[in-house]
């Protein structure tokens, strides 16, 4: 993965703790998982992103396609287990008009019978509730104390 940090990029800023709108549930040298503020189906909505700037799926190095999908799968399983979802919808957009943040991200949306999906969440969830959900998801992901961990050789 190209080891690029783009200040001002929403997810680069989240990975490095320059903003805290979306509490982190997981972070290693390759991938980070956040709890999203606008939750279309209730608690457990997660975003899986590379820990370094990659604009979209076509820009992801081929050797990281497998690991990225494994992280999305792992998050999907954790979301189901931790938030009582009966399933998930995993989706990903590339370029306009679908991609709102130009940093590759997979949406992991918890699904429950009668949840009304697809729909947009109009109101952001309070940060205290997001933090609570991030703690639960971190435990489900086996990462109870998530923190940024830069790749070896970088400061
Ligand atoms: Zn970025």
UniProtKB/TrEMBL annotation:
Residues 10-118 form the HIT domain. One of its GO terms (biological process) is nucleotide metabolic process. Coiled coil: none annotated. A motif (Histidine triad motif) lies at residues 103-107. Pfam families: HIT. It comes from the Bacteria. InterPro entries: Histidine_triad_HIT, HIT-like, HIT-like_sf. GO terms for molecular function: catalytic activity. This is Histidine triad (HIT) family protein. The active site is at residue 105.
